[in-house]
TrEMBL record:
Protein name as annotated: AAA family ATPase
Protein species of origin: Kocuria flava
InterPro entries on file: AAA_16, P-loop_NTPase
Residue ranges occupied by any Orc1-like AAA ATPase domain in the UniProt entry: 16-165
Lineage summary: Bacteria, Bacillati, Actinomycetota, Actinomycetes, Micrococcales
Ranges where the record places region Disordered: 90-122
One Pfam family here: AAA_16
Length: 380
């Protein structure tokens, strides 16, 4: 029996823990049709909490309802890529190529073409919404629609964001069966929406599920179920011990499950397997989640975090500044950067805490190496 756990970013877990309400709300909105609230969602959550997995799961719900799903990741040319996928699907569905007739249909639509034309300029930008509208035309005959998911929305540039939002808003106004589900890091998404242009106003009205850690008791149940289904055995107590080691953090669920399973070989899972498996999971979490996240930061950002790790509880900004040998204003610049990067979160007045589990321990263990690069230019 192969190891059922999937400790890889974006990989579908053997059992999706704690997310049923989100899936149900989406199904309900698909049933309710155009304009239903959960067709437009902006999901946020820390790294490894399961955003990409949820986009896939919601996409599967849409697919089961006969919708076409287009998954995209934010980045240059994204709208163009969505357009090409839409065009391919439309051709597969057997609709003739877009011709003059389609164009004239467009002109007779009350709000369609005019609005789209007025908001878009470059060719990539016009094509994407036209392609989407054409695909929606075809699907309308089947009573279904299109679900577009956009991952890593925090790295979408403002221009693309405005086109995306403006065009989807237009399709919603036309009463089309269109669903847009986006996911990104909380603070960065907040900033993206902070502007006061009209399309972002539209996005601010999206449902905003915040993906958080899942209940530890449900994690324990999932371990029992997955392991039993695979004809192996684990006691209730050990399943709970594994679950507690995950802290309910989804990435850690897969890591602990994977390594405990691996330790056990073929026989029943014992206390020793759990101890060794949890230790292996913790060190892999560092390599898979913390290390790449820290590598994206500047040396001063990392120093700030290492200074935080000296505390056993949420840190005071003033203390961190003192440890860095700087004033609080200087430190607050880096606090804001780290909030935006999803590394830390506000924990009450003047306090900050780590966002990811075991980050504190990881930083303590690797402090020397992380602060060493101090002079590689920390301003950016
Ligand atoms: N609800 C969940 N239950 C169990 N495991 C999950 C859940 N959500 C995500 N995972 C696992 O967590 C890891 C990270 O998920 P991912 O979607 O890549 O996170 P994010 O996109 O938020 O960084 C993957 O290994 C995935 O299988
Ligand atoms: Mg992801």
């Amino acid at each position: 029996m192969p190891n059922p756990f999937k400790p890889t970013a974006g990989a579908t877990p053997p059992l999706l823990v704690g997310r049923r309400p989100i899936l149900e709300a989406f199904q309900e909105s698909i049933d309710d049709g155009p304009g239903a609230p959960y067709l437009l969602q902006l999901m946020t959550g820390a790294r490894g909490v399961g955003k990409t997995v949820m986009l896939n799961e919601l996409g599967d719900v849409a697919t089961r309802n006969g919708w076409i799903v287009i998954h995209a990741t934010a980045g240059p040319g994204m709208l163009d890529r969505i357009a090409r996928r839409a065009s391919t699907y439309r051709q597969e569905l057997g609709s003739r190529d877009r011709g003059p007739e389609t164009t004239s249909w467009r002109i007779t639509t009350p709000v369609g073409e005019l609005g789209r034309e007025s908001q878009t300029s470059g060719s990539e930008l016009r094509i994407w919404s036209d392609e989407l509208a054409d695909l929606l035309d075809v699907l309308e005959q089947h009573g279904t629609g299109v679900c577009v998911t956009v991952d890593e929305i925090h790295s979408l540039d403002l221009g693309q964001m405005q086109i995306l939002a403006g065009d989807v808003q237009m399709l919603v106004r036309e009463g089309r069966r269109i669903s847009l589900i986006m996911a990104g890091l909380p603070r960065a998404v907040e900033e993206l929406l902070a502007g006061d242009s009209r399309p972002t106003t539209f996005l601010r009205r999206a449902e905003r599920p915040l993906l958080a850690d899942v209940p530890v008791a449900e994690v324990a149940d999932s371990f029992l179920q997955i392991i039993t289904d695979a004809d192996r055995s684990i006691s209730d107590e050990l399943a709970m011990e594994c679950a507690q080691a995950t802290g309910g953090y989804p990435f850690m669920i897969q890591l602990v499950g994977y390594h405990v399973w691996r330790q056990a070989g073929r026989g029943p899972i014992t206390e020793e397997h759990v101890t060794a498996g949890v230790a292996a999971a913790q060190s892999r979490l560092g390599a898979l989640v913390h290390e790449p996240a820290l590598a994206d930061l500047s040396a001063v950002d990392r120093t700030f975090l290492v200074m935080m790790a000296r505390d056993d509880e949420p840190s005071r900004l003033g203390d961190i500044a003192g440890r860095m040998g700087k004033d609080s204003r200087y430190a607050s610049v880096y606090r804001d950067r780290l909030l935006k990067a999803g590394m830390i979160r506000a924990a009450g007045h003047g306090l900050v805490d780590f966002e990811a589990p075991y980050l504190r321990e990881y930083l303590r263990e690797h402090a020397a190496h992380l602060v060493a690069g101090q002079d590689d230019g920390g301003q950016s």
